[in-house]
User: Fold these one by one.
Assistant:
Number 1:
Amino acid sequence: MGIPTLRLSTPSATDDRPDEPLLLDRFGRVARDLRISITEKCSLRCTYCMPAEGLPAIAPEKLLSAAEIARVVGIAVHRLGIQDVRFTGGEPLVRRDLVDIVARCSAAAPGVSMAMTTNAIGLDRRARSLAEAGLTRVNVSLDTVDRRHFETLTRRDRLPAVMAGIDGALAEGLSPVKINAVLMPETLHGATDLLAWCLDRGVRLRFIEQMPLDADHEWDRSSMVDAETLLDVLGRRFDLTEVGRDDPSAPAEEWEVDGGPSTVGIIASVTRSFCSDCDRTRLTAEGTVRSCLFSDTETDIRGALRGGATDEEIADLWRGAMWNKWAGHGIDAEGFEPPARSMGAIGG
Ligand SMILES: Nc1nc2c(ncn2[C@@H]2O[C@H](COP(=O)(O)OP(=O)(O)OP(=O)(O)O)[C@@H](O)[C@H]2O)c(=O)[nH]1
Ligand SMILES: C[S@@+](CC[C@H](N)C(=O)[O-])C[C@H]1O[C@@H](n2cnc3c(N)ncnc32)[C@H](O)[C@@H]1O
Ligand code: SF4
Ligand code: SF4
């Protein structure tokens, strides 16, 4: 069965592209941030992301190897101007050769920031080897500090393992450690406790508006917890002062908490979309480029990687894919359809 198949983009749509090495699109944006999904597998089953049974397995021969991922990173950094690399999934820690992937990518692109987005299960045991391999920092998904709610939301009773993973990351200096919390109506009342916990641990919390990328297609705008509702709830316990974005392409807007210096972020992808400043490009675990989370097409580079293409030929395929990037996600547009892949299959 495998991950749903998408339409592959047509290279002919690049005739009007200027002859420029960087990853430009028609809307004047330049992609500098590469997000690489390395697996579809996961140790959790968050309801807003995965189906209860997990995603259909990718056939082993379709998965990019550590060496192939490192080659792609080298091309992205040296030919296409990528400045930041992030490993995601699925759950990157589920992949046994993760340390090897990080080490090879660091060697292919010395000095480039290598981050990981993770649920942190097992990170306490692997944080040191990952840091030694060149991992710079981690963002950890944690939606609630209430064990019962955590189990309901993720369909697994693993809150203590996540907390141990966060401590492990802090102990190994994989910092700043940022926490990502997707809010659901049933966990909204726990948002202030989560913020208090993060302030106490010295980690940077960001709340995220749920996007229509759940595998079960149950997202409904009317039940989504939006930034405005969340600010209202947080404001009842904390004094918040808006400070804006770290940089124009950062998804999170920041608020100072109780006079600072600690902050809380909100990633309001739906109600305060940041698509006009987007600097992202994505590589799926099977080696296709996605220009946007919500794309309905992908550009295969695995075939080129394995078919003897030169680095420059692969770079050109990628440039073409990004030139055709949409203006934005279009969630508010009439006739909007979510992509065939869910968040866990794209690589969030
Ligand atoms: N709309 C939109 N949302 C995104 C995109 N990438 C990530 N997100 C959302 O932002 C959340 C946080 O993403 P992270 O993987 O932690 O990355 P980040 O926030 O860009 O990373 P930092 O550089 O550490 O701030 C994800 O859980 C998604 O919900 C994107 O390209 N578009
Ligand atoms: C797909 S996960 C992959 C990495 C890792 N397993 C994790 O959870 O951090 C990446 C990010 O996507 C976010 N995410 C998943 N489904 C989402 C959705 N429907 N809307 C918004 N963010 C979502 C998660 O909260 C997480 O921060
Ligand atoms: S959000 Fe991350 S941890 Fe949760 S199911 Fe999706 S991939 Fe797994
Ligand atoms: S939805 Fe697409 S265009 Fe908007 S920020 Fe995400 S990747 Fe960029």
Number 2:
Amino acid sequence: MSQKVVVALGGNAILQPKQEATYENQLQNVQKSSEIIARIVKNGHTVIVTHGNGPQVGNILRQNEEAKDVVPPFPLDVCSAESQGFIGYMMEQTLKNELRKLGLDNPVVSLLTETEVSKDDPAFEDPSKPIGVFFSEEEAKELAEEKNWVVKEDAGRGWRRVVASPMPKSILGSDIIKKLTDDRVIVIAAGGGGIPVVKNEDGTLTGIEAVIDKDRSGFRLAEEVKSDVFMILTDVQNVYVNYGKPDQKALTHVTLEEAKRYVEDGQFSAGSMGPKMEAAIKFAEQGGRAIICSLDQADLAMEGKAGTHITK
Ligand SMILES: Nc1ncnc2c1ncn2[C@@H]1O[C@H](COP(=O)(O)OP(=O)(O)O)[C@@H](O)[C@H]1O
Ligand SMILES: NC(=O)OP(=O)(O)O
């Protein structure tokens, strides 16, 4: 049965933590992701793609800061837009090429998307979103001192710079995204969580410096385009209970009640699986099917043969 699916690609699908952030490395990874997404389209589903930008937006911000004596630096929301633009470009091009190989002619378009947040969001007082590259604790603390950064440990993987990450209230233009998908267009949207903007009292919009979590914005997008499935692709085949322990157990099909119980038990790290489970649970609460799985099993998971599925 044909279904509408919002696919959220994790940071690993664009750049693995140990890889150098060259354009070539990122293009090669994105090409692999596109190969898999094309298979989902081939199986008859309607796909909307969204993606992370943590490493990329951090690097663009740093490029701006390091070159500030030569070229005036841009604010973080503009860096977000830049990262959305270049990742969207890689995805659009590789997806068109992969669809063509499978004999498909669906149009593909990547849309620069703004996401509305609240200027009063408490996240502005407590930066939590890791961006850019990983450092040792010592290096990170030195950089924090020297450059006035906030740095934090990132889910056991090293230390990173962190910035504010407000909750997404709505994805601007999701009505247009929905119309395009109804017309067979494969849309890449709300990359990097979307460009954070606030609505002023007179209805105008202004950019605000932050990076939105793409699992949270992916949920909003899936909700607003009335998707049947919200699929979060990452680097583990399943969500596990007792993850990393000798008795770890893969979750395949879980009900909302079970999922919430595991969250209460503290089974999912705040900086990694936590936001994914939070987003998946919200989507399942509205009656949709949420899937968390590895990128290479995405097409199998869509057919119910891999990954962790959460339903009401
Ligand atoms: N209970 C769990 N089950 C599976 N993975 C978990 C769990 N808790 C933490 N993780 C970690 O979550 C990581 C995926 O999150 P993250 O690296 O933020 O994803 P991405 O960058 O792909 O969006 C996995 O690599 C794994 O190390
Ligand atoms: N914006 C965002 O959530 O990016 P990552 O998935 O790369 O952290």
Number 3:
Amino acid sequence: MLRIEQLSLALPYYPRFWRRRYATHLDQLSFSVAAGSVHAVVGASGAGKSLLAHTIMGLLPKGAQLGGSCFFKETPLDEPRKRALRGRELALIPQSLSALDPLARSQHQVNWAARRAGLAPASARQTVCQALAHYQLDERARRAYPHELSGGMARRVLTAMAHVTQASLVIADEPTVGLDPAQRGRVLDALAALTRQGKAVMLISHDLRHALNIADRVTVMHEGRCVETADASAFQGTGQTLKSAYARALWQALPDNAFTIDTEYARESHFA
Ligand SMILES: Nc1ncnc2c1ncn2[C@@H]1O[C@H](COP(=O)(O)OP(=O)(O)OP(=O)(O)O)[C@@H](O)[C@H]1O
């Protein structure tokens, strides 16, 4: 569904206001997301996960320098194609709740997403009602403006918006942050259900444990680089089948696994 080859990204910054420099944020990333699968992208805060999502969606700031290539359904995903597919074939559940329009009620925003995706009014109405019910957004939440929603409710509105687009690839950037366990399960189940319809999900998370609940494959990122891509089944026991020491350390550092940490990570380089 999605193939990324040697993707690099540099963004401008200004050490003095007349002097422009570039900082590399993504460095030669390569991996593929298969149709009918959940591909988790995990890594510490600042690893470049959200920037990767924004790069695929074509939502980068002005002056961004891109290298490498992206293919969606075996066709190059250039900037005009990203714009054309965004909100239709490609959907993003953004990490930031400020992505919601502060002047529009929840139901209106979900409805807008369905109409933009090309659904006819009658079918949009039905799809929106189903999505709002699925994410347990009651009458009050549907009529609320973003500032009247709790963080968890706002996140569910954003998830419902991506859900109604019926996109082939859904990129979910930390979709469960701030949700209670029941709501978290509901969102993860909904993402997993998309794969049963042949869609692909790229699940971005700093929480490897949550990601492993539904992931088929996992890419571990560190400082803008792809450290390792492995089957989710590699994350078990001491993680001895993982190739990189960083991925192994990330797995072993989970609270339930902490007792297995050894000194190997300290001895090896991060990218061993
Ligand atoms: N618009 C931007 N302009 C310049 N630098 C940016 C921009 N967005 C992000 N960065 C920088 O890129 C790096 C990666 O940020 P990114 O948000 O992708 O990390 P992340 O892995 O998603 O982290 P988190 O899990 O905390 O969301 C950070 O150093 C950040 O400061």
